[in-house]
Design brief:
alpha/beta; seven-stranded mixed beta sheet
């Protein structure tokens, strides 16, 4: 069985400044595009049988620049919905809500169309993505790539390891990085985390094999 390949999208202006970004559809910065291209060598020797990508432009562009062809847009890979905290930094939230912690407290309700999510709701969404990805892994020896967002992928990692969604707080995840989830003696484990190459490194032509999906 292959591994789950987790890719956090490259930098945006809001990720650089620490502003919570879920449904706001920002493009990658120039540095973010460089981060995405630098993922290609890390993927070159992998056999990618299926790529699932968040519908947001920053994730789709990262998949494209990393050389992942034929991605399947997967709404379940959307970032944690931050509700009223969209575009707000943690420091700004603490001015009116000292001690607030996303992982245990969730977010303040936003507008009707973007109400926000609790940690448990994000965890259930991650479970749904994992069901689809693990089914694909069991049916072939290829890897499955998930291109998504920082907080969501941290929750997904916690759920893969059998932990509560709030345990995602333990897994710091930088922009433009690749991580791997696999098994050891049939036990779910992290096999690689926050992997990246310098953006200036020579990038060979991507050779990640992408099966038709």
């Amino acid at each position: 069985m292959g591994e789950l390949i987790l890719i956090r999208h490259g930098e945006t202006t809001w990720s650089r400044s620490g502003r919570h970004t879920s449904y706001t559809d920002l493009p990658l910065t120039g540095q973010g595009e460089g981060q995405a291209r630098a993922l290609a060598p890390l993927l070159a020797e992998r056999r990618i049988g299926l790529t699932l990508v968040s519908p947001l432009a920053r994730a789709r562009r990262t998949a494209e620049l990393a050389g992942l062809d034929g991605p399947r847009i997967t709404p379940g890979l959307h970032e944690w919905n931050y509700g009223a905290y969209e575009g707000v930094t943690t420091a700004e939230i603490h001015r009116t809500r000292p001690g607030w912690d996303l992982w245990t407290d969730g977010v303040a309700p936003g507008p009707a169309e973007q109400p926000g999510e609790s940690p448990e709701e994000v965890g259930r969404r991650a479970d749904g993505v994992l069901d689809e990805a693990l089914e694909a892994l069991r049916s072939a020896d290829d890897d499955v790539a998930l291109v998504s967002h920082g907080h969501f992928l941290r929750v997904l990692t916690a759920r893969y390891l059998g932990l509560a969604p709030a345990a995602g707080a333990l897994f710091l995840l930088a922009t433009g990085t690749l991580s791997r989830l696999g098994t050891e003696h049939d036990r779910p484990v992290i096999t690689g985390w926050n992997l990246a190459l310098p953006e200036s490194a020579p990038h060979p032509a991507p050779r990640a094999r992408q099966n038709a999906a």
